[in-house]
Amino acid sequence: MTEMVYGTVPVQSGEPVLSRWWRTLDKWTLSCILILFGIGILLGLAASPPLAERNGLGAFHYVQRQAVFGGAALAAMLLTSMMTPQLVRRLAVLGFLVSFVALCGLPFFGTDFGKGATRWYSLGFASLQPSEFLKPGFMVVAAWLMAASFQIGGPPGKGLSFGLMAVICILLAMQPDFGQAALVLFGWGVMYFVAGAPMYLLTGLAGAVVAAGTLAYNSSEHFARRIDGFLNPEIDPRTQLGFATNAIREGGFFGVGVGEGQVKWSLPDAHTDFIIAVAAEEYGLVLVLFIIALYAGIVLRSLLRLMRERDPFIRLAGTGLAAGFGVQAMINLGVAVRLLPAKGMTLPFVSYGGSSLIAGGIAVGMLLAFTRTRPQGEIDDIFRGQKR
């Protein structure tokens, strides 16, 4: 009866959970994620041994840690993708609250590890970056608030989500972490646009961002130094950007060969922020384009599936998560080729990093949960019914 009324596949009575999960999952997106993780391990084998040698550790110390963190991230992704949207929302609210409290405590208990920005908690055996876990939770909470505003007599969800976004961006800018603040702002802006924001408000928001950037440039030496370095037409070959630019140029179309790259011996962040420079030097433009295609495939497939979704909360939350995932990859790649100022942002599922890997696994798991095929869940059924 359900398929006659809604034109969708009914839930099979008594179907096992794993069978239903596999049948409704977007397998192309899952495959792209697994391939990205495999590429991350491959590039970690190339990029991390020089750093391990400098730190007096085993050659594959960082690769082994990445495999452990990656395994935890994949497990979190798969478990989250099996949840219902309602359960994802509840866990996201809880995770957001915990991450927000942790973010507020950074000025008092955090550390900068000598990088000039207090973004982490030192746990001894590892470090924790609250902002990585805050992002997916915020996207879901903001989508929930916006969706609630569509209901008759509902709360002013769009205004509440804006206030929450502004507070988070201010806390991130105080670290300073302008890259993560830009991601939160962009993800919220995309959801706000999809929710039907008027153009004059979006224009005003763009003007506010420009004003905030000008204020940050005049008041933050950290921010001004990065902007000045980006605008300077001359690239100092002894800087990270200089090493990365030279590596990409040397790699050419097919690369210099596996293990033959030299940038990993010069870049301190070759295994994290500038992992794409190692890929470009040793494997060439071919691998870089393949990586870009994987990210584009994940975002586009997710958005296409969300376009058919009827539930406004699922549509908004999935759009915010997909946009944040894609823009983070774009920022990392843009910094490496000097299209954007240096941000200190990892490449999702490819760069080394415990917090970024596990938080990325949770975020993509949420996205997979929201894009699963559900009966009565496609928005085009409404238009079919109007035509009959």
Describe the structure.
The protein is mainly alpha-helical and 388 residues long. It has one domain. It has a two-stranded antiparallel ribbon. The N terminus is likely disordered. The two termini are 17 Å apart. A hairpin with a 4-residue loop joins strand 1 and strand 2. The chain contains 16 helices and two strands. Helix 7 packs parallel to helix 9.
Brief synopsis:
The longest helix is centred in the last third of the chain and has 32 residues. The N terminus is likely disordered.
Describe how the helices and strands are arranged.
Blueprint: H1 2-6, H2 17-24, H3 27-47, H4 49-54, H5 61-81, H6 85-109, E1 121-122, E2 127-128, H7 130-148, H8 157-173, H9 178-194, H10 199-219, H11 221-231, H12 240-251, H13 275-306, H14 312-336, H15 354-370, H16 380-387
Antiparallel strand pairs: 1-2
Helix pairs in contact: 3-5, 3-13, 5-15, 6-7, 7-8, 7-9, 7-14, 7-15, 8-9, 9-14, 10-11, 12-13, 13-14, 14-15
Multimerization state: single chain
Radius of gyration from CA coordinates: 22 Å
Largest sheet: 2 strands, antiparallel
Order of helices and strands: HHHHHHEEHHHHHHHHHH
How many E strands? 2
Residue fraction in strands: under 5%
First CA to last CA: what distance?
Answer: 17 Å
